[in-house]
Every structure is written in C-alpha cells, then in structure tokens.
Amino acid sequence: MKYLAISAHPDDLEILCAGTLRLLVERGDTVTMSNIARGDAGSFTHTPNEIAAIRAAEGASGASLIGADYIAGSISDGRVNAADEGQRELVVDLIRRVAPDVIITHAPNDYMPDHNEVSKLVFDAAFTASLPNYITEHHAHGFVPVIYYMDTMAGVEFLPTEYVDISDTIDAKRAAFTEHQSQLTWLLDHDGVDMLEQITTVARFRGLQSGVHMAEGFTVCRTWLRTPAARLLP
To answer: What are phi and psi of 84, to 5 degrees?
Structure first.
C-alpha cells in the first residue's frame, strides 16, 4: 500500500508519527513524507531562505533514515491557509502525484495555526484530488483516500482511537528527529522544550494507555468515503 504523511513543518512527522512510518516501511509499504510549509521562520540566527534550505536538507535526511521518500513544501511559515485556492491546488497535486491509499496528517485541533490549516487543507484536497475536471499537473486520483490524524503536540486534547506499538522503532524515530539539528536548538530556545525527551515521554504515555512499552496514537477521519472497514495501520 501507499502512505502519504503530510505535515506543516519539516520535523513534525518525526515528532508525531515516525515510529509508525518506519513500521510501514519495514512491512513493505511505500511511504512518502511531505511538509507544506518551508520551515523558514524557525530560527534566531538564519534568514528565512537560509533556514528553509537547512530544514529541507534535514527533512530529506530524516525521511531517508525512516526509508521514506521526501517532498519539501513551498509555503512560508505562518502563511498556511486552507481557504487559499492556490494552496489547496498544491496539496491536490501532491496527493495526485503520490496517489496514496492512506494519508496521515495533523489533527484539526493542534496547538498552532499551520498545523490546523494543514489538517483542513488535506481534508479538502483529498476529496478534490479525485475530481477529474479539477485540473492540475497530475491526473485525478482514482478514489478518496482514508485519512488518519496523528497525535497533537504533547498529546494535548487528543484521545486516540488506534494505537501503534513502536517499541521496536522508537530508536529510529528519535534518530530521524535528531537529523533536525536546527530544531533541537530552536525548540529549546523558543519553547524551552527538549524535544527528544518529549518524544520519549509521549511514546511511553501512549504505550501505558495501550499496554505496550512505546506507542503512537491516531484517530481515523470518520466521514463517508473515508472510513475503513479494516485496520490500515501496523
């Protein structure tokens, strides 16, 4: 099967679902990781273009460790907008390019606007991508893919309905995030957060909830055409 994980920023997938993505790769699925925003605002020391280039390289490195393909985004941080037709067209064409069976993206109630706008963009674009008369560079996708929402940052206001045991891939998840060296510093300086510690703490908490050592939590988007009859996560 083909899985497309779409986040706001280059490090979000490593933080929130990289253990699951690694498991998908290990079982033989095709995984593509993509971010919509460039990551061009997350630095005290670099210009927007400088940090965007750094973060694109970090995103590619992190995806490589997971074993996934990587597609970098082009929207500036803080300017992701689900009401922008041009941005919706970009996401439609991304979905058509990858042609996924399943999309993993942000929950619609996360802590910052870019995450929430990406969630709405993906929900809208996943349906629009199936419409043959909505013209983009790539041909229409043949169906509306299933959408899974990954955990919110630090698990705040998120109640998983599905858990994935990542006990065997937590090290791969942490290693993939460690490729984002610019953000290890940024998140500590800007938010006072040791993100490697947070990744481990949240995984342990989700593991406690689900009876395993380490886990990631998800909910499925329950709307018509999107609700699977079988489990699609590892």
So the answer is: -80, 115
For residues 57 and 72, give the distance between their C-alpha atoms in angstroms, rounded to a whole number: 9
Alpha helix stretches (DSSP H) within 70-153: 85-98, 113-128
The answer for 225, left when phi > 0, alpha when psi is -120 to 50, beta otherwise, is: left
SS3 1: coil
The mean of the pLDDT values for the chain is 97
89-147 pLDDT, tens digit per residue, is 999 999 999 999 999 999 999 999 999 999 999 999 999 999 999 999 999 999 999 99
pLDDT digits (tens, 9 = 90+) for 45-67: 999 999 999 999 999 999 999 99
pLDDT at 185: 92
Span between the terminal Cα atoms of the chain, in Å? 12
DSSP 18-74: HHHHHHHHHTT-EEEEEESB---S--SSS-HHHHHHHHHHHHHHHHHHHT-EEE---
Right CATH for 2-220 from 4.10.320.10, 3.30.360.10, 3.30.1490.20, 3.40.50.10320: 3.40.50.10320
